[in-house]
Amino acid sequence: MKEAIKEARKAGEKGEVPIGAVLVLNGEIIARAHNLRETEQRSMAHAEMLVIDEACQTLGTWRLEDTELYVTLEPCPMCAGAIVLSRVSKVVFGAHDPKGGCAGTLMNLLTDERFNHQAEVVGDVLADECGRLLSDFFKALRMKKKSQGN
């Protein structure tokens, strides 16, 4: 999770929502990414989507069985869907997302037995640190907008 937090900090430095992710296979990081939605102006440029894509390219397959995804914020519906479809085995996340979390908060797409794949889910890993990155980012953003008179 510490490596995912490093990725989240990179996103924050770029003015992106500070969310980071790493994908691990056999104890080694095979892909890392952070949010690039604003930078690339692509709605799908979430950390999880980017790390899954990088891992698929690295491994030469869309099947990411036996991999573990570490992400600083609970995955949204889009990312949870990509996790299921790419067959990631385990998802470890930091902070819960009360507005869009689909790994247990609003629903749990990752363990829904109606899909042909389920992922093990572990939440609240370094949750305070992950949550603080987000709250500090949004606090600074609000202060910036207020100082600009918006």
**Roughly what percent helix?**
40-55%
The low-confidence runs, each spanning 5 or more residues with pLDDT under 50, are none
The number of strands is 5
Please give the radius of gyration in angstroms: 15 Å
Kindly state the mean pLDDT as a whole number?
Answer: 96
Q: What oligomerization state is this entry in?
A: single chain
Beta percentage is: 15-25%
> Quick one: CATH superfamily?
Cytidine Deaminase, domain 2
Structural class: alpha/beta
Second rung of CATH, namely the architecture: 3-Layer(aba) Sandwich
The domain count comes to 1
Keywords: Hydrolase, Metal-binding, tRNA processing, Zinc
Subunit structure: Homodimer.
EC number: 3.5.4.33
Active site: 48 (proton donor)
Give a concise summary.
It contains five helices and five strands.
Would you give an account of this structure?
Its EC number is 3.5.4.33. One of its GO terms (biological process) is tRNA wobble adenosine to inosine editing. This protein is globular. It has one domain: Cytidine Deaminase, domain 2, CATH 3.40.140.10. Helix 1 runs parallel beside helix 5. The mean pLDDT is 96. By secondary structure, it is of the alpha/beta class. It has a five-stranded mixed sheet with strand order 2-1-3-4-5. The protein has helices at 2-13, 37-40, 47-59, 77-86, 127-147; strands at 20-25, 28-34, 67-73, 90-95, 120-122. 40% of the residues lie in helices and 19% in strands. It starts with a helix and ends with a helix. The protein has five helices and five strands, in the order αββααβαββα.
